[in-house]
Design goal:
This is CsbD-like domain-containing protein. The chain is an all-alpha fold. It is 67% helix and 0% strand. Helix 1 crosses helix 3 and helix 2 crosses helix 3. The chain is globular, with a radius of gyration of 10 Å.
């Protein structure tokens, strides 16, 4: 499991608030996290933000 997945699992409640501040068009559904479905979350963020998987990982790691 990657460090990004570990960060999502550990701190996502706090991080999703920061994500929504930075990208105001993200909805609660866009940033919804279900345990074990990190890849699904990453895919939604990629699609919504128009970024690559690596860009999303780097962004999450910077939060």
């Amino acid at each position: 499991m990657s460090a990004t997945h570990d960060k999502i699992k550990g701190n996502w409640t706090e991080m999703k608030g920061k994500a929504k501040q930075q990208y105001g068009h993200l909805t609660d559904d866009d940033v919804a996290y279900t345990h074990g479905k990190e890849d699904e979350l990453m895919g939604r963020l990629q699609q919504k933000l128009g970024k690559t998987k690596q860009e999303i990982k780097d962004w999450i790691d910077s939060l």
